[in-house]
User: Which sequence fits this backbone?
């Protein structure tokens, strides 16, 4: 059995989101809708994004690049918005990685 054989489809996850929304569980529905967007994203890419979202693992620019890639290459606007929200929160809390290159290298 291959992992793709048991992977949830975007349609299935979207149906679960509709049920959650009908039950008044909007935050859960939003999480499920982001998961539906990620269903088509390769697993190794999801892992790279997960790693970038860990504190001090990515700069603000790197997170914006991920958000743009999610939005344009994977048609995942909700997940892109989530990454941008994380970038803003990390900036406020000092949790972004510091670009250690000199200004001439940037």
Assistant:
């Amino acid at each position: 059995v291959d992992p793709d054989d048991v992977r949830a489809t975007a349609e299935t996850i979207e149906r679960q989101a509709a049920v959650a929304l009908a039950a008044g569980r909007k935050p859960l529905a939003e999480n499920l809708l982001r998961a539906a967007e990620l269903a088509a994203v390769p697993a190794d890419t999801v892992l790279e994004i997960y790693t970038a979202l860990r504190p001090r693992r990515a700069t603000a620019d790197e997170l914006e690049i991920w958000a743009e890639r999610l939005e344009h290459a994977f048609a995942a606007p909700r997940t892109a918005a989530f990454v941008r929200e994380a970038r803003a929160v990390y900036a406020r809390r000092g949790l972004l990685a510091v670009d250690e290159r000199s200004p001439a290298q940037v």
Summary: Residues 77-93 form the longest helix (17 residues). Residues 19 and 41 are 23 Å apart (CA to CA).
